[in-house]
Amino acid sequence: MITGWLSAEDCPDCGGPLLDISTGPKLLTLACPGCGYRITWHATDPDDSTDPGPDSADPEDEETT
């Protein structure tokens, strides 16, 4: 029996559904039950970003005129 959440993406090999079969919070695994295609990548938390981005103000970067 295959259990998992249905992904919004389709399998690139056969066009079938991709199931989220991840077993932990660090890796995301999607698998196609039809052809066996599987892809895994590191999951990231958008609320836990260490990159302040280009909109953050750094007082040392301010220009004086």
What distinguishing features does this structure have?
65 residues; mainly beta; elongated
What does this structure look like?
The protein is mainly beta. It has a domain at 1-42. The protein has no helices and 4 strands. Strands 1-2-3-4 form a 4-stranded antiparallel β-sheet, with no helix packed on it. The termini are far apart. The model has no long low-confidence stretch (mean pLDDT 76).
Q: Summary?
A:
With 65 residues, the protein is mainly β. The chain contains no helices and four strands. It has a domain at 1-42.
- Number of separate strands: 4
Order of helices and strands: EEEE
Q: In percent terms, what proportion of residues is strand?
A: 25-35%
Overall 3D geometry?
elongated
Task: Give the overall pLDDT as a whole number.
Answer: 76
Estimated structural class:
mainly beta
Major sheet attributes: 4 strands, antiparallel
Topology:
Elements: E1 5-10, E2 17-20, E3 27-31, E4 38-42
Antiparallel strand pairs: 1-2, 2-3, 3-4
